[in-house]
């Protein structure tokens, strides 16, 4: 199958590409799930803290199902984890199957610990994930560039793009999603149908966010007259942009959300909302197009319409929502070992954000294109 040309969103930072070798394996890429709540230690559900390597979450559940006798649909989990690398997450299943796992052993899957809880774990029941990444073949000059890039992202935040995982091996998921909406392609599997449509929504989100990153970069780097000419902004609109301290610029009519979770609302008092944005109390929320999505207004709506206008005719075929556009790292640390030419770093992300997106912003290149 011919690989589609995937849309490449704009980077926020301005540094040149950094040379470093990244391999998504179980020693160089580790993901640890941060649960939404503490487990009670009592209840009808067994909570397994599992460690898997080179397995998808469904593959891990299949192994546990075959050993325990528990049906796949009775398992609960907060989110799907990558196949490549080592991942640690929580799984729930009915307590009655506990004895069947007493002598469990598997070369790619370990049960680290177990407890109990009153409820089944549901999709989304996590705060986020902690990531450990090791880069190899890193020269001292590139190590310094890595350190500076990580510090800058920690300072200003990052564009919360959807990662390559959403778009498929051949980059054609979004195209297939649009074909389904147009009635040109039919699928019997409803989950796959919804996933492909979500890829179409995700690509539109990435295109919109890339445009907003562009506006933010130009507002920081260009003179007011140049910005007005490029985007057709009025003097007041340019003034509003140039007065904002944050890298990412808010617009009148943006849909905002309390960060890292909370209700959506409309940006009607730009000055006061910018102050809250600088404190990381709120953030901008981009459109996942669909009939239930919270609607923007004014100048923000103008730029949404430029990206999304061709999708509006299919609006009633999609649920729609909003997604944080600008997010922040937590618990950042890094270390360079010149003797081995290895640079390792770790950070936490809120649920829904992609570590690979952060890594691409740091390296400024396709992370799977090795030197």
Automatic annotation (TrEMBL):
EC number(s) from the headed UniProt entry = 5.4.99.27
Q: Which residues form the TRUD domain?
A: 157-327
* Catalytic activity as recorded in UniProt: uridine(13) in tRNA = pseudouridine(13) in tRNA
Give the matching InterPro entries.
PsdUridine_synth_cat_dom_sf, PsdUridine_synth_TruD, PsdUridine_synth_TruD_insert, TruD_catalytic, TruD_insert_sf, TruD_pseudoU_synthase
GO terms for molecular function, please?
A: RNA binding; tRNA pseudouridine(13) synthase activity
What Gene Ontology cellular component terms go with this record? Answer: cytosol
Superkingdom of this entry's organism?
Bacteria
Q: Which Pfam families match?
A: TruD
Give the positions the UniProt entry annotates as the active site. 82 (nucleophile)
The biological process GO terms on file are: tRNA pseudouridine synthesis
Q: Which UniProt keywords apply?
A: Isomerase, tRNA processing
| Assigned protein family | Belongs to the pseudouridine synthase TruD family.
According to its UniProt entry, the function of this protein is described as: Responsible for synthesis of pseudouridine from uracil-13 in transfer RNAs.
User: What is this protein's record name?
Assistant: tRNA pseudouridine synthase D
> Which gene holds the coding sequence for this protein?
truD
